[in-house]
Fold this sequence. Notes:
Layout: H1 11-64, H2 87-103, H3 107-118, H4 121-129, H5 136-148, H6 155-162, H7 167-181, H8 186-191, H9 198-209, H10 229-241, H11 248-257, H12 260-272, H13 279-286, H14 291-304, H15 310-318, H16 324-336, H17 344-351, H18 354-364
Amino acid sequence: xxxxxxxxxxxxxxxxxxxxxxxxxxxxxxxxxxxxxxxxxxxxxxxxxxxxxxxxxxxxxxxxxxxxxxxxxxxxxxxxxxxxxxxxxxxxxxxxxxxxxxxxxxxxxxxxxxxxxxxxxxxxxxxxxxxxxxxxxxxxxxxxxxxxxxxxxxxxxxxxxxxxxxxxxxxxxxxxxxxxxxxxxxxxxxxxxxxxxxxxxxxxxxxxxxxxxxxxxxxxxxxxxxxxxxxxxxxxxxxxxxxxxxxxxxxxxxxxxxxxxxxxxxxxxxxxxxxxxxxxxxxxxxxxxxxxxxxxxxxxxxxxxxxxxxxxxxxxxxxxxxxxxxxxxxxxxxxxxxxxxxxxxxxxxxxxxxxxxxxxxxxxxxxxxxx
Length: 371
């Protein structure tokens, strides 16, 4: 008995064709629905813009050109047919107000903020951030809006966003907190930095420097050996920038427990703070440290010493067995301290080896700042 099965002539083949046609039609229906949704959303947004722009123009530009501007006028927009609960109206309203905010300044900018707040756009934005699921782009945009509206987020919400895996969300949160809470926000920000890249270091450093009365804040209590290196680097740079001389004990403790890179940064800060009383401390630690730390100590002594380090530096410079980098930095520091020890360069020159003579020649040349 011969049994031949031909798939293309079977009932199964016809069923498969029907299924394929069904799904093909379904896919096209979905595509058409998505396109139509976007088109409808755009249409509603454009209609809202057409409605809102003349109203806001009348309120804001009318106030702008008034001889005695009335900033206390009634700005409730629901009375003028704008419904902030409607998504399209809210998006259009936020867009137009932000355009005016960027264009104007002073009392007029405060007037824009008042329009935001009277119409509850600040509360609606906060409510949006409380959603269980929200895209990162929406978080960033909403935080920027809240910054304009002068509406700070709660500490609980700030912690959530500072712990985000998205770097831009974290940056936007820091920027929002610094602009609205100032120095009060720094403990929370520092406490939530587990890792930070060098570009963020620069941005955060500059943001902190722009805070009003930032020179009254004490940064050294936040220094810890367990911190990410870049966080400690920011703190040390701020300590130097604001000349926190009372940070001395913290710096010395950090030097004792820090790793090699942190020790280098601490020594650099001690030198820039010109803590001359720590001259003997650095000389004592010199022999027990790595090459990088030793070189930084030689450089720091040239900044903070009042002359007591000259014999030590002279010994290092005259030791021809040391690498040239050691002798170079020793000589550079001696040159910086030459007024505390008149004739020291002439004395070194008289007894110097040929290689060291070349170093002295270059160091004394006024056209050469450093070698």
